[in-house]
Every structure is written in C-alpha cells, then in structure tokens.
Specification:
557 residues, FAD/NAD(P)-binding domain, Rieske Iron-sulfur Protein, nine-stranded mixed sheet, globular
C-alpha cells in the first residue's frame, strides 16, 4: 500500500463518543431524562434512564470524515466522467483508474454523504427477494448467478480493504434470516429448512437453525456475510482512487450534458470525455432522451427506511447480520467499538412521501430494540432511501451509447453498489462480465434458459476464487475416511485434511500459497490441486509443482 493511503486510513479509524442532547423523548419522559420500559415475562419493568439524540445524523457521518475535495474550477478532458461520489461512483472510479483510465468524479455535495452515508452497511449475497422466489422467477442457474454476484462484490470489498490496509471494521460474519420475533408460524420451520437445502444445492453455505441467536425461533444461518464502516472504507477508497490518478471534485453538480462532443458541465466548466457514468442512486437523465429517461423512472419505486442505534456492553449482541421475513422487514447488525458495541436496527419502510407521522416509525423501532436488547442505550436515529425494481434486481449498465447507470439496489446498497462498479468498469474497459446481461439496465425480462454459469465464466476472477466461498465438504474430521482427503471447516476456516491408511490425520491450511485459492482433493492422484493456477501438493502439503513455491501452511487444531 502507498504510505499516504495507509496513514490516511489509520487516521480515519478514530472513534467518536456521542454527545447526547437533553429534552429528548423515548417511551416515557421525566424532565430531560427518558425512562426505558422493558417488557419481561408479560409485565413492564423499569430498566434505567438514558437520553436519545433527537437529530438524524447517521452514526457513520458522526464517527468518520472523508477528505474534502475542491470544486471544479477549469475545463478538463477525461476518459470517463463519474457523477456521484458514493460507493457506486467511487468503486467505479477506482477500478477504472486502476485499469489505466483517466477519471473525473463530480459530486454535487460531499462524497459519501447522502445514500452511502445513510446505510446500515450490510454486505451480503442474500437478496430482499427470497431465494426460492428467485428460482421460481429466473430458474436455478440465474438465481445462483444473482447470489454469486453478491459474493463477488463482497470479495471485491475485501480485496480493496486488504490491498490498502483499510481500517474500516470489515469482517466476515454470519447472517440470519428468521421469522419475526415472537411471530413464528407452524410452517416457518419447514420453509426455512427447504430454503437452506436449496442454498446448499446452489453452492452456498447455509444451515437451518431451530433457535436463532438473540431473536429466537427458526431461521437460516448463512455463513460468510460481512459488515464494515462505510465512511471509513469510502474515505480510504477515495484516497486510493486519487493515487491511481482519478480527480475528485465536490460541490460540483452536473448541470448540463452534451452528446456532441460528449461532456458534462459543472460550475460553468466542461469535462469532455468518452463515457459517462451516472452513479447518483436515483439516476439523472444525462444524454438519454427525456422520454426514455421518464419511462425508465416509471420502473423505479422509492421507499424510505428508518434506523435506530444504541450502545451495548461488548458481548451483549452477537456479531452477525439479521433480517426477518416480515413485509416490510426489520434488519439488524453490530458495529464494534473499543469499549462497547453499537447495535443498529432498521425497518418501517414506506413509499417516500406517503407517511406523515415519521416520528412513529422511529418510536416503533426504539420499542423493538429496547425489548430485544433491554440494556441498550439509544444514541442515534436516521433514515435512508432505497429504490426497488419490478423484478427485485438492480439495473446496471449501458442505457444509451457511452452512458451507464446503476440503480434499484433495494436493501443491498453496499453489495450492489460495489457490483455496479465492477460491471460498469468491465464494460468500459471491454472486459466480459458474467452478470452484465443479468442486471442489464435495458432488460425487459430475464430468460429461464439453462446453462452452466460457472463453466461459461470460468476465466472471470471471481469464479477462479469461488472455492473460497463455496461450502466445505464436512464439518468434522470424522468425515475424512482412510485414504481420503476432504476440505473441512474447522472453527470457521477451511482446512485440507487427509487420513492415511493407518488412520493418522494430516491437516494443513486449504489456502494455496500462490494466490490464495482453496485447493481441492484429487482422489486419483492423491494430491491437493489448486483449481486456479494448477499448483499441486502432496497429502501432507508439500509442493509437487508450481507456480506455488511454499508448502501448505500447518494447521493447529
């Protein structure tokens, strides 16, 4: 990592204590203090007093800053102009600049301030539309591709975090899909069991659970989901994009577009370019015809979603993602802090502009969180906007010659925003992308045709690395028979286990020492083979042939 990016990333790791304001209300008020009432065993019991911040600044904005950029003050030429400095725009700009393109980013305000700044930052392959419904709608191969795309985006985020040593609380955590707390029906368990089996069939780690942690009742545990601090991530990503040559201008609203020559006007200055990327969440018209843009808008439904967050003692709430199956659904996650954790609960969605009593939306979430986590100290509340499409999948890609957009992420903004950057960067640089057709912005319907998605896209980087995310062959070393090798999940990590004819077990890391792919057992040759670049290892991990030069690392059980 370049020293400037590393230093900036660590400076941005600061933790900010909340200054709670007086004269707030929550459940029952006495003076400037609020009485928490906690429902326990059918009665209401006084828990303690605390105060709740009445403003609506998100925790992410309060706890991390993004380096400022000046307004555009001159005419420029660039290969690509990106409009919008959220996760979609900055990811697109970074990937394009990394590939050698000259990029200008224009943001009408501050980068990472609006939609990305008002997220809850779940990173997950699990879509708002249930997997079974996706299969009914698209067929199994397309449904698998949708979830693969989510995992690829998560992998892209992790890759950037590692490459630039970004301190943004990124970590892999489980995700739980569960029945609404206290409202599980007699059929929920069966439905969750079916969906977990379907996910496993399609190659995703999922298991049915009888009792979901914290919330109780049946559900599904999806391994290998993730969470991070979005503003800390974007702050470092903006620096990384600049170091690759991208130019970022804030307070520079795109006020006019030209198609001959192609360009964008901001602050009375023109940026002429070869391609335009509209990364504004709710897309601008750009150079597309007004009629076409108006028709496109009819396919988008805008919803407001609400969030409350509070401090809890460390270890009170599991570090995981949670989503219930209500409509609208509630979602929850944890953000670790030095001396406490912040638990974040969202939901109460409604069509934007169609709810007059928005305070009631916050109040209900506060009651739910206080009931679920009695010792929580409420500290933040904010709202954000999500955009839904008729088929539940985002629109990503070219809308007219040399103009691209991304929108309709529903509840998967961080995931699909990152995926959008990947798809659009591939399109502009002329690289085939496995998901471009699936999420095509001009699609009318997605066909149900059958084909081997992984085989057709075997040379795309994600599919070379997919074994990192695919399910292990066993959860216990007892699953390894004499003379056999298996990939076993041991304490959340995949390891390569081989048992010889005498019953002795050799366990090594399953990660190839060349570029980090997961090896696979070759039963004919009795070797561990890397599916990415062909390295081969003996059953006890020594190198047979490269490009790997080091043996598989020893694994201590």
């Amino acid at each position: 990592m370049r020293p400037m990016a590393r230093v900036a990333a660590h400076l941005l790791e600061r933790e900010t204590e909340v200054r709670l304001k007086p004269d707030t209300t929550y459940l029952h008020t006495s003076g400037n203090r609020t009485l928490h009432l906690t429902r326990r065993r059918g009665c209401m019991a006084m828990a303690r007093h605390t105060t709740l911040q009445t403003g609506t600044e998100p925790y992410w904005i309060d706890s991390a800053s993004i380096p400022t950029s000046r307004s555009i003050d001159r005419d420029l030429d660039a290969d690509v102009v990106v409009i919008g400095g959220g996760i979609t725009g900055l990811t697109t700009a970074y990937l394009l600049a990394e590939s050698g393109k000259s990029v200008v980013i224009l943001d009408r305000g501050r980068c990472g301030q609006i939609d990305t700044g008002h997220t809850t930052a779940h990173i997950t392959m699990v879509t708002d539309i249930r997997l079974g419904d996706l299969v009914d709608q698209l067929g199994k191969t397309h449904a698998q591709a949708v979830w693969d795309a989510g995992l690829a985006a998560a992998s892209q985020i992790e890759s950037i975090v590692r490459a630039h040593e970004i301190a943004c609380s990124f970590d892999w955590v489980p995700g739980y899909l569960h029945a609404p707390a206290g409202r599980a029906s007699s059929t929920d368990a069966h439905e969750f069991e079916k969906e977990a089996a379907l996910a496993n069939e399609l190659g995703f780690d999922a298991s049915y659970v009888d009792d979901v942690p914290l919330v109780g009742g049946p559900g599904i545990c999806f391994d290998h989901q993730a969470r991070f601090h979005p503003r800390k991530y974007l702050a470092a990503l903006a620096i990384a994009a600049r170091l690759e040559g991208a130019k970022i201008f804030e307070h520079s609203e795109a006020e006019a577009f030209s198609d001959e020559p192609l360009g964008v006007k901001a602050n009375d200055h023109w940026v002429h370019c070869d391609d335009i990327v509209i990364a504004t969440h709710n897309p601008r018209v750009g150079i597309e015809s007004f009629a076409g843009a108006t028709l496109f808008q009819t396919k988008l439904a805008l919803y407001t979603s609400y969030v409350v967050a509070g401090r809890v003692a460390k270890g009170t709430v599991p570090d995981a993602l949670f989503w219930d199956t209500a409509d609208p659904y509630q979602y929850m996650r944890l953000e670790p802090r030095r001396d406490h954790d912040l638990v974040i609960l969202g939901g109460e969605d409604h069509k934007t502009g169609q709810e007059s009593n928005t305070d009631a939306c916050y109040a209900h979430l506060q009651e739910v969180l206080a009931d679920r986590v009695p010792d929580v100290s409420l500290a933040y509340r904010w709202s954000g906007q999500v955009i839904e499409t008729p088929d539940g999948l985002p629109y990503i890609g070219r809308t007219t010659d040399h103009q691209y957009l991304a929108t309709g992420f529903a509840g998967n903004g961080m995931t699909f925003g990152t995926l959008s950057g990947m798809i659009i960067a591939d399109a502009i640089t002329g690289r085939r992308n496995p998901w471009a057709e699936l999420f095509d912005a001009n699609r009318t319907a997605i066909g149900r045709g059958m084909w081997d998605y992984i085989k057709e896209n075997a040379d795309y980087p994600y599919y070379l690395m997919r074994s990192r995310f695919a399910g292990a062959e066993g959860k216990s070393f007892r699953a390894v028979k004499a003379g056999e090798g298996k990939i076993i999940e041991d304490h959340g990590t995949k390891v390569a286990a081989y048992r010889d004819s005498d019953g002795s077990l050799a366990v090594r890391s399953a990660t190839c020492t060349h570029m980090g792919c997961i090896v696979a057992w070759n039963p004919s040759e009795r070797t561990w083979d890397c599916p990415c670049h062909g390295s081969r290892f003996t059953p006890d991990g020594n190198v047979i042939s490269g490009p790997a030069e080091k043996p598989l690392a020893e694994w201590k059980r």
